[in-house]
Structures are given as structure tokens and as C-alpha cells.
Amino acid sequence: MGLFRRRDDPQPRQPFSWVLPKQTSSLAPEDIYTNADLDPTTDPAQRTWGYGTWFSFWVAASLDPAFWQTGASLIPLGLSCANAIGIVILGNVIISVPIVLNGMIGANLRIPFPVAARASMGYWFSLFAVLSRAFLSLIWFGVETYNGGSAMTQFLRAIWPSYWNIENKLPESAGITTRDMTSYFLFWLIQLPFFFLNPNQLRWAFMLKTVVVPVTMLATMGSLVHAAGGAGPLFHQPNLVTGKDFSAAWLLGLASLCGNWATLAVNSPDFTRYTTTNRAQWSQAIAIPLSAFFVTICGILAASASIPVYGLTNDAAYWSPFDIMSQWNNRAAVAFAALAWMLAGIAANITANSISSANDFVTLAPKYINITRGQLITAVLGGWAVAPWKILSSSGTFLTFVSGYAIFLGPLSALLTADYFLVKRKAYHVPELYDPESIYKYTGGVNWRAALTLAVTVAPNLPGLIHAINPNVVIGNIQWWYAPGFITGYIPALVVYYLLNLAFPHHATLLAEAVTADDVDLSVPPTIDNFGTKSDELNKDAYEMGSVSVHA
User: Fold this and answer.
1) Is the pLDDT of residue 211 over 60?
2) Is residue 279 a part of any domain in this protein?
3) Cα separation of 9 and 23, whole Å?
4) What is the CATH number of the domain that holds 291?
5) How many independent structural domains does the chain possess?
């Protein structure tokens, strides 16, 4: 396979070549270059994610420093601890709906997100969704790596206490010190071996994190609560805002929670295509809110207890686990906790970012990129070109924009849901999704219904995004439409796209039943009928497009 082969690749090692060999398993026509990383996972050996793997997958995704600090974005808004926890549970329950629904596409048809998006958006327009998701994955890969670098700093200062006092040789404008840049590089480096593993093999890393990280979180939180003699002042703090300000805080918190998983609401087929059964991935509906609740309550209790333990004011509570660890004198405790947080960062980065963006890069350049190369590209671009230390040291304007990008991800997620369940009624022709001249070409590779849906549903949220980036821009009450973020993109897009397809159906794509990769004899050359639908008059039984019909 050239640079690079995965460990489970049975093929003999080939000489290095930038061009990947055209693989015989591809469903695309001979003149279209693709590779097996985008093909359906038809081999049962590829489908190994059971109920336990799905639960550990979400534990792996949730139990990281960013989620530990969720309370830091909610309680400072003036909300009580009870309301903050309520928002966490509700937000994760809401976002689990599109994650599970869109995950059914991968579970039923065994195709990744970039391929599934072609059914609703058109073969070429789907690249907009692919690029959007890749952009965000790169940003968050860098941010997650930066958090892992903070854990590396704690680990190294536990081994060599003098590491904490390394002299800074970088200018202030760099946004990072020499010590932290060293830690960042080392953590970035230790992630690389995981990119050579097949997604099936990663389930063992998820399971390990499911054991190690919760124990570390409970130990950190429990020791602080014990030392404080209770939960601390923040845990009993009442709401500090009322009326309109209370509603605004609730909506902003809810938008933040939904936005955390907005990318996975779009690309969940990338993972669900590895599930053992169609039903196994439904366990996500329980795993998502449960794991988010656990890590958030630990973070809030630890921050609240840190106030009396370390003599802090309420505004100076330690929300970051690394701030808490910096106060510890027990070097063994620091080292083991830091290792756990590094494992948390690696697992979260792989689940939410690197594999997702790798699938995108494979779609954009399948002749040169497979999933392994895509992950390495993500590591370079997300780890260094993004320069996350500059982003995190800035005023936060750029991160506000990235978080607000959920106004695009909501409609994109809705297109997948509405198209599969409401418009096509689960009847996709999988081999056709791999052909740019197929029924999913629509008009020039663009489904104008999807394009119009995006325009209609994104436009009302743009003033709110502008106001969030620059509060000096007055937009009036329309900011209330933007406040829920993902929700006011997802639900309207569901309705608009469905109504457009009712009024202007694309008959060629409305099949009587689904045609999977296992159902078609690809050796039969198809022809084109009057609807633009592929069929073969002599071999209709061999090429199932002969059974095309329009839904009643």
C-alpha cells in the first residue's frame, strides 16, 4: 500500500510510492480513483464494535480535560450547579439524537460519512461538507494536543522537578514557553504510533481509558472533597441571574454542549460502519449523556473543593485538572495522573478528530491518501499549521467562531437525517454512491435542494455569529435565534429539506429498497434509462436498479 501500511494489512510490503495502488475492492468505475478505506465494511472481520466498545468509545471521547472544565463555561454565567448539570444532561441527550440517527446509515449500509453525504448533497457538493468537517477537526486536534502537552509537563516535572523551571527562550509573542513547547512536541510525537492502527484495533485503547481515566478523575475529585470537608461553596451557590439573563445563560450553555459533539453528529457513520450489529450503536444514546454527566460532576466538585483547600476566591477556582496537579507534592501521584490524562487526550483526539479528518482527506485525494496518511496529515496540519498555542493565548475570538460553526454543522447533520429517513426511506444504492455519473449526480454533481436548505437555514444564524465574535455589532432580538446554535440549524433544515423534496422529488434516487454492496453483481455493465437511472434490460436481476420505483 506504499507509505504507510497498517499492522493488520496482509499484503506483502510494496516499494514506496506517493501514488497508492488502485485496489480491486473498490466499487467506483475503472476511470475513478478510490481506495478500500472508503469501501463498505462488508467483511465481518471488519465489524467488531459491540455494545461494550460503543460505551467505551464515548467514555474515551468524553473523559478529557476539555469536558472536565465544562462547568467553567456554565457556572461563571451565573447558573447554579444544579442548572449546570441539567444543561449537561439535556444538551447531550439532544445531540445524541442526530448522532444515533445518522449512525444508522453507517450501521445499515457500512459506508463512511463522505460517501453517505453524496446521497443528499450530490457527488461533488458533498465535498463542502467534507471540507467543513476537516477544517474543524484540524482545529480541535491542535487544541486537544495542547491539553495533552499540559499533561506531559506535569509528568516530566514529576520525574525531573527541575523541568518545571526550564528557562524560557521564546518571545512573549510566541504565545508559549520553551518548556510548554517541549512538552507539546513530545506529546504530539507519542500520538503518532496510534495512527498506524486500524480503527478496529483502537477499541482496546478505548477500553483501557474507560478504566484508567475514571479512576483518576474520582481520585482527584475525592481527595479534594475529603480535604475540603465537603463539596465547597460553588456546589451550593444559587443562581446569580434571573429572568432574561437566566434564559440567555441556559441557551448559551445548551448551545455550547450541543456544539461539542456537532462534528460527530455529522460524521458518525465513519465509526458505526464498524459496529457488530445494527442495534449495537444505539447504546450511544445512553453512553453519551452518562459519560458527560460523570466527568462534568467530577470537574465541578473538584473546582468547588479547590477553593477552601487552596485558599482561593470563587472566581479563582481551579477548573483545570492541571492547575490542581501543579499543587501536588506527591510526585508518584502527579506522574500517574498525568499518564492517565495523556491517554485521555490521545483517545479523544483519535475518536473525534484524526480518523474523521483522515476520511475527509481520503475522499479529497484517494489516489495519494489512505486513512493512515490522512491521520499523519492531520497531525502535521492540526498540530503545527494551526498553532493552537496562539489560538488559546488570544482573546478567544477565533474559538468563538469555531464554536459558532455549529450553525453549519446542524444543517449538514439534518441533511443526512432527513434524506435517509424521510426522503429516501433508507433506500440507498450503495454502489451508485461511488460513481460521479450515477443517480446521485443530480445536476452537475449538486443537489440544489440541499444547497437551498443550507442557504435558508444558515442565513438567519449569521448575524448571531457576527455578534458573538464582535459584541459591538448590534443585531437586535435575532440573537435569540442564534443562541441555541446547533438546534436552530438542525430542526429547520430537517423541515426545509423534506418539504423541498416533497414539492420537487428527484425520482431517479427514490428506490423501492436499499441496494447494498453485497446485492449487486458489478460485472454487469449498466445503461441509463429516461429517468437517468442505471439499469440493464437483459440482466435486471443482476443489477438491482431495474427495480427502481417512486415512493407513494
Assistant:
1) yes
2) yes
3) 13
4) 1.10.4160.10
5) 1
Residues 373 and 369: their CA atoms lie apart, in Å, by 5
Q: Please say whether the dihedral angle defined by the alpha carbons of residues 498, 504, 510 and 512, taken in this order, is positive or negative.
A: positive
Q: Tell me how far apart the alpha carbons of residues 439 and 534 are, in angstroms, rounded to a whole number.
A: 7
Strands 534-535 and 527-528 turn out to be antiparallel
Taking 3-state DSSP, the helix, strand and coil percentages for the chain, each rounded to the nearest 5, stand at: 65, 0, 30
Q: Which residue range is the domain that position 368 belongs to?
A: 36-401
Phi, psi torsion values for 191, nearest 5 degrees: -75, -30
pLDDT tens digits for range 339-378: 999 988 888 788 778 888 888 998 888 888 988 899 999 9
All three cell numbers of 246: 437566566
Q: What is the pTM of this model?
A: 0.85
In three-state secondary structure terms, 275 is: strand
* 163 within some domain: yes
Query: What number of other Cβ atoms are within 10 A of residue 361's Cβ?
Result: 24
How far, in Å, CA of 203 to CA of 431, rounded? 29
The sign of the CA dihedral 126, 128, 131, 133 is negative
Question: What confidence score (pLDDT) does residue 406 get?
Answer: 78
Judge residue 481's burial from the number of C-beta atoms within 10 Å of its C-beta, 0-12 exposed, 13-18 middle, 19 or more buried: middle
CA dist., res. 394 & res. 375, Å (int): 27
- Residue 344: its pLDDT value, please? 85
Could you give the CA distance from residue 149 to residue 354 in angstroms, rounded to a whole number? Answer: 17
